[in-house]
Fold:
Amino acid sequence: MATITVIGGTGYAGRNIVREAAARGHDVTSFSRTLPDTPVPAATYLTGSALDGSAVAAVVTSAQVVVVALAPSGDLEDRYEEVVLDIAALAGEAGARLGVVGGAGTLLVGPDGPSLSETPDYPAEYLSYSRAAHGVLRALRSTDPALDWFVLSPAREFGAYAPGEATGRFRVGGDVLLHDDEGRSRISGADLATAFVDEIESPTHRRGRFTVAY
Ligand SMILES: NC(=O)c1ccc[n+]([C@@H]2O[C@H](COP(=O)([O-])OP(=O)(O)OC[C@H]3O[C@@H](n4cnc5c(N)ncnc54)[C@H](OP(=O)(O)O)[C@@H]3O)[C@@H](O)[C@H]2O)c1
Structure:
């Protein structure tokens, strides 16, 4: 059993990870500004802002695994990268493993690129998200090798608008976007969480990024 703090544990990705990790018996704490309407009974919910350094330090240093499920929007729109890297530094000092929910925009459309966010039909409204996710990925790749991190970039179709189901059957890839036989790149919230908690329990992507899709 691991002690896991999910920063942003009430959002779409975060609440799926909280639910999955708690269901597997881990000691899970969620940290976000507000409490959820339907909390996971076995999880602990703490409130605070990711912009409050001392509150973040307290929840990071008490964890063996720190999950960042924040989004680069709202009051984090221009500060997401800075906040995630501060969390990474705190995790490193605490000897905790860091797991970040990334974005599909940073995945390559083929082995030689470009990234999905550089393709012509990539929605303009997601470009700022993708820039933030790229920034975090680049910075994590340059961190001290002692920091044990991973980034899980979801498939292209992922989010509260398409929650899907828990199938337990998905493919795991690296830096290249995965598609199903119909050419769709998609993953449910539950299956993303399964892959995320699998990685916590059996680390196979140390200091690396991976993706999951059907
Ligand atoms: N296909 C894709 O590539 C794809 C699709 C969707 C999401 N994503 C990525 O997945 C990650 C998570 O996205 P999401 O859709 O799950 O986000 P979300 O539903 O908006 O959840 C964000 C979480 O962060 C918390 N939060 C926001 N601002 C905060 C602050 N200042 N202090 C503390 N907590 C704060 C929110 O709770 P409070 O508001 O209560 O604080 C919530 O728990 C993002 O990096 C996003 O880009 C990727």
